Every structure is written in C-alpha cells, then in structure tokens.
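Input.
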Amino acid sequence: MDQFSAEDLEAMEAGATPVSIGRVKLMMQEEFDREAGPRVDKMEFAKYLNEVLPVMAQQDERLMLKMEEATDDETVKQIIMLMMNRTKERMKIEALRDIATSL
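Output.
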C-alpha cells in the first residue's frame, strides 16, 4: 500500500493513470497470473479486502468514542490525525480491491 499515495488515487479517479498506480497494477497482475509457486487469486484477494473495510469502520467508531471522551486537546488532535491516516488507508484498500477486480 505504500507504493501509491492518496494524490495518486485522486488522479486515478480523474481518469489519469499515475506511474505508481500502473506499477501496482503490474505487480498485482504478475501475482494473479503466476503459474508456478504460490499464487494470489484475485477474487479471493478482493473478497478479503471487502472484509477488512467493515472492521476498519468499527475501529473508527471506537476512535470517535475515544475522541468524545478525551479530556485534553492533545489527545483529540492525535485521534484526528490517526483517523485522517486511516481514511487514506481505507482509500488505498478500496483502490486495491477495485484494481484487483478490474484486472
């Protein structure tokens, strides 16, 4: 997931194919097409990513509760930063799932 950024995803949604996204697509296609050795099934991979997203949503709900219960501004700030990073992670997971199902 560290191969591309949220900005790359925005460009992809606008119709462009950033080099980083192209690289990820190529790596995934090689894994899906591998004939020898361990192989990744693209539909199983997409299914797994679909199962990760609801778990992340539950974790986000718990973070929101912690933020509401926080007694100091520094804790709230840390939780907000964590949630922003998690949003980027979720976008990347959704992109990987979409790439896997489109290959």
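The helical segments are 6-13, 19-33, 42-69, 73-102.
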